[in-house]
From TrEMBL:
InterPro entries recorded: EamA_dom (IPR000620), EmrE-like (IPR037185)
Membrane-spanning segments: 107-129, 141-160, 167-188, 194-212, 224-242, 248-266, 278-295, 301-323, 330-347
Compositional bias per record (Basic and acidic residues), positions renumbered to this chain: 35-58
Keyword list, A-Z: Membrane, Transmembrane, Transmembrane helix
Identification of the protein by name: EamA domain-containing protein
Family (UniProt): Belongs to the EamA transporter family.
Bias-annotated ranges (Low complexity): 82-95
EamA domain sequence ranges: 226-345
Chain intervals for the UniProt region annotation (Disordered): 32-102
One GO location term (cellular component): membrane
Gene3D superfamilies tied to this protein: 1.10.3730.20
Biased composition regions of type Pro residues, renumbered to the chain: 60-73
Amino acid sequence: MGELLALAAAVCFGLNDFVSGLLSRTTPFAARDGVPVDRAPRPVDVAVRRAPPEDAAERTPPPADEPAEPPRPAGDARERPASPAHPGGRAAASPRRADEAPRRERGAVVAFYGQLGGTALVLGLALLVGAPRVDAASLGWGALSGIGTGIGLVFLFRGIGIGRMSVVVPLSDLAGVALPVLVGVLFLADRPSPLAWCGIALALPALWLVAGGRLGGSAVDTRFGLFAGVGFALQFVALAPVDPAAGLWPLVASRAASVLTILPMVRGRLPRRLVPPALASGMVGTLAIVLYTLATRQELMAVAVVLASLYPAIPVLLGLTVLRERLTPTQAVGLGGAAVAIVLLAAP
């Protein structure tokens, strides 16, 4: 049952990423020449507009008062920094850097409204379910989890605003999975079975491939990706010590803390017509946290967090079926690896 709850959490995380990405941009999955290049999250970023061909900027003559850019040598694969999509999503490399900051801010606003919607949902559920005993320690752990959520989103948005999406987002995914596994094994006495270890080992590269990860990022890309991953890892790890008798109240504290952490990044507000879907998206994301928390009460945290973190596959699959996106060979290999990892992790 714990494995099913964790997989259900992954589906909810993926739906949250997909919808949030659509709200942050125009079409899901940034694409180059119509082919998706980066991933959706997050995290905290899925949907994106289709970018012009890479050589479009070269075909457009520069203004008369600006010198032409010297031709790149053959084999130069350097990218311009990619712009964000949303917590956990994708973006395309764009020559218009002036648009990156507004997009990053738009993603932060979507995430903020989503966390508000999630807070309202979990508050209602907590009142409905009740709790035998709500202790201060559990509330504190819940608040720490929410701070981790906020930190992860803040660094993710900063990173995808000034760095390479294809490095920042996958790196945050890997760190967000690997760190909880290490904590579970070293400090919580988690002892996954040999098959589960094989699933964990396979899930990590599968996540990178599904997310369209690339090597060769700068120090800035690495730093922001790792810091975002640490935040998301804290979101998962801090919920492990929560007393089940506290019910859902620690998650109320978690969502409230995430709202306060993201608030300094918010600039402006969403158009009124986009507020309901943003709130609904956040509710789905919060439902994912609820399912993950329930999963950790029946399954090892090291296993539950890996299963729940396979959510990047959901936006990719939705892009294929709903938006008629094309699957890259790398993503196909990643999806296959994720499927095998699920079987290994769910094996008795």
